[in-house]
């Protein structure tokens, strides 16, 4: 498996980018420091933590992902679905055929904890079935599908 953690130069570049963004945001005038309309009091400017001194801690962020790598998830490969009445389920026997909504040759869905993450095709490896991933669902597409489902 390839190493997914960014190298040190990428981490340094990311830290510098965060520091520059923070410096830019702290140099802009705060709208909270303006006088409240119709009142004689002045609103104090908010106090923010200076994250530029915390940049060395940002380099360790890539190592924090190691804490979740061993969390088990449920991976499901779905051939298709169908809706049938319970009376037909009770009539099923060995050799019965259940028609699915998927067409022959159509890519199968790969779900992690019920969320579509990829599609693929069936392969046989050493007399066992497997799936070759042909399309990975992008994070933006996953978010779009989630927002449509709600």
Summed over residues and divided by their number, the pLDDT gives a mean of 76
Portion in strands: 15-25%
Please tally the helical runs, counting DSSP H or I stretches of 4 or more residues. 5
Neighbour order of strands in the largest sheet = 1-2-3-4
Kindly name the structural category: alpha+beta
Q: Overall 3D geometry? A: elongated
The stretches of 5 or more residues where confidence is low (pLDDT under 50) are 1-6, 30-39
Can you give a write-up of this model?
- The protein is an alpha+beta fold and 150 residues long.
- Helices cover 29% and strands 19% of the residues.
- It is built from five helices and four strands, in the order H-H-H-E-H-E-E-E-H.
- The protein has helices at 8-27, 55-58, 61-64, 86-90, 139-149; strands at 75-78, 108-112, 115-125, 128-136.
- 1% of the residues are buried.
- Residues 1-6 and 30-39 have low confidence and may be disordered.
Attribute tags:
5 helices, 150 residues, 4 strands, alpha+beta
């Amino acid at each position: 498996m390839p190493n997914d953690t960014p190298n040190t130069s990428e981490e340094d570049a990311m830290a510098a980018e965060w520091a520059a963004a923070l410096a830019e945001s702290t140099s802009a005038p705060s709208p909270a420091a303006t006088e409240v309309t119709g009142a004689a009091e002045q609103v104090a400017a908010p106090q923010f933590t200076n994250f530029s001194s915390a940049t060395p801690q940002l380099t360790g962020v890539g190592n924090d992902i190691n804490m979740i790598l061993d969390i088990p998830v449920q991976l499901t490969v779905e051939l298709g679905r169908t809706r049938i009445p319970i009376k037909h389920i009770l009539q099923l026997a060995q050799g019965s055929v259940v028609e699915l909504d998927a067409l022959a040759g159509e890519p199968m869905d790969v779900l992690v904890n019920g969320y579509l993450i990829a599609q693929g095709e069936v392969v046989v490896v050493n007399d066992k079935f497997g799936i070759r991933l042909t399309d990975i669902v992008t994070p933006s597409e996953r978010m779009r599908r989630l927002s449509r489902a709600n």
